[in-house]
């Protein structure tokens, strides 16, 4: 039972892949094969390196087919990487710090705007086009809608035909 548990945890060997490291204009490729005497091939031309790692100096960002082989095993890869001479690499901690600082500054500005604008809600500012209003000034009554005008004494005959009918 213990051996079965260990074999389940370890599992079958995973599909091995190339390891590509980029630093400036230098690209380092590590072959997934562990044997010695590895033959490297870049876009159909064999290279003179027989180590597990192959280093491409001054890589020009042009796509290239890379393969490494040893005896009967062969692994192939299509390399299309963009490199630059003066790029700076940021780690995850630096990016997290920049985003956190930006959020905190934005949140602080929002709080300041809220507290400074909270006191001005009830105050009406006098602008050039507005007239000063008194506190006890009364509004005029609303204009009646002519569609719902009340029946006057002399106009009853107009509405005489609108009596309710029994159905």
Automatic annotation (TrEMBL):
Keywords: Cell membrane, Immunity, Immunoglobulin domain, Membrane, Receptor, Signal, Transmembrane, Transmembrane helix
Gene Ontology process terms (BP): cell surface receptor signaling pathway; positive thymic T cell selection
Top-level taxon in the UniProt lineage: Eukaryota
GO CC terms, sorted: alpha-beta T cell receptor complex; external side of plasma membrane
Transmembrane segments: 92-116
Principal location class: membrane
MF GO annotations: transmembrane signaling receptor activity
Database matches in InterPro entries: CD3_esu/gsu/dsu, Ig-like_fold, Phos_immunorcpt_sig_ITAM
Protein known as: T-cell surface glycoprotein CD3 epsilon chain
Species this chain originates from: Ciconia maguari
């Amino acid at each position: 039972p213990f051996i079965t548990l260990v074999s389940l945890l370890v599992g079958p060997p995973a599909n091995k892949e190339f390891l590509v490291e980029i630093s400036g204009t230098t690209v380092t490729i590590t072959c997934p094969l562990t044997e010695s005497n590895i033959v490297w091939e870049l876009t159909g031309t064999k290279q003179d390196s027989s180590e597990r790692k192959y280093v491409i100096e001054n890589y020009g960002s042009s796509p290239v087919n890379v393969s490494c082989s040893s005896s009967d095993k062969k692994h192939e890869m299509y390399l299309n990487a963009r490199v630059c001479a003066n790029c700076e690499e940021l780690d995850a901690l630096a990016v997290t710090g920049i985003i956190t600082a930006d959020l905190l500054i934005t949140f602080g500005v929002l709080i300041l705007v809220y507290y400074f604008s909270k006191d001005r809600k009830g105050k009406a500012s006098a602008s050039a086009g507005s007239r000063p209003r008194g506190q006890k000034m009364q509004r005029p009554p609303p204009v009646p809608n002519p569609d719902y005008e009340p029946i006057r004494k002399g106009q009853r005959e107009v509405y005489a035909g609108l009596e309710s009918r029994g159905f």
